[in-house]
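S.,

Sequence below, as promised.
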Amino acid sequence: EVGAWQSGVAVGLDRADYQDEFLGVWSRRNVWGKKHPVRLAGEIVTTGQMVPKHDLLRSEMYNEYLHPRGLHEGLRLAIWAGDGTIEDISLLRPWSAGPFEGEDIRLARMLLPHLQRGAMVARRLRRADALAETGLAALDAVAHAAFVLDAAGRVLHLNGTAERLAAGRDGLKITAAG
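The prediction came back faster than expected:
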């Protein structure tokens, strides 16, 4: 099931085409994802393991999206699965390049823990950003002057009342040093 938030990066494809066509249309009707959804983080699976080639060839996604772009053979690295969301990396190439096997899968297994760690850091940073934005919004709603300073006394954030107080220049001075 595709979540409400979708994002992706495509290399070798037109960015607008990937955003509008794949994420906008085909990700919800992904033949591979429907037959073999990501359930387990760390899984590495070829598209042939997900859907037999004869079923892929008959699919709407193949005929209308993949084939015109020369995308046939694939490998999916499941980065994260939890909280109703998934993160994965799908590598696709033409059949003329051959199936993903042996060395390709060994390299994917070697890289996967690093990709997972990077994705985990990104999730934590998104959560920290959301919490920080919420906290600053709460301070902005306070009627009293609120100053957020770092350990050296440098200003990180002022609410509106604090900005007006500082602009008054009647005893309070804010400089780059604090």
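The radius of gyration is 24 Å.

Coffee later?
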